[in-house]
């Protein structure tokens, strides 16, 4: 029990700091600063949005994992779209670079 109590208190300041910055991704996405990176604006189905940093080598699957972690308890049955007119991001194995979505707005549709 003591270790369970000490771990959250160790994490709390960092978690509080990261929650105040909209550009900080949850701990599920690790951005390697030595590799090319990009910012993606993710527009959720409810209209809210968040800006997150990813490496251009992260995949669309990583973006989905970020969304699932950011919105726990919500449906994972959604599509991602990009561009205008919106085009679906169907291939989860493509990297952000391969999909051509660096510095884009990603739209979640349920």
Automatic annotation (TrEMBL):
PANTHER family: OS06G0634600 PROTEIN (PTHR23333:SF25), UBX DOMAIN CONTAINING PROTEIN (PTHR23333). GO terms for cellular component: cytosol; nucleus. One of its GO terms (biological process) is nuclear membrane reassembly. Residues 33-109 form the UBX domain. This is UBX domain-containing protein. Keywords: Ubl conjugation pathway. The keyword Iron does not apply. InterPro entries: Ubiquitin-like_domsf, UBX_dom. Residues 1-23 are annotated as: Disordered. It comes from the Eukaryota. It comes from Thinopyrum intermedium. It holds the Pfam family UBX. CDD domains: UBX_UBXN2 (cd01770).
């Amino acid at each position: 029990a003591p270790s369970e109590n000490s771990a959250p208190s160790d994490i709390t300041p960092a978690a509080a700091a990261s929650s105040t910055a909209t550009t900080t991704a949850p701990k599920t996405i690790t951005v390697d600063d030595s590799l090319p990176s990009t910012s993606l604006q993710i527009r959720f189905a409810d209209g809210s949005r968040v800006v997150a940093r990813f490496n251009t080598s992260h995949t669309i699957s990583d973006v989905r994992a970020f969304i699932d972690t950011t919105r726990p308890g919500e449906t994972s049955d959604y599509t991602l779209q990009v561009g205008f007119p919106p085009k679906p991001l169907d291939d989860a194995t493509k990297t952000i670079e391969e999909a051509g979505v660096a510095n884009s707005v990603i739209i979640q549709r349920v």
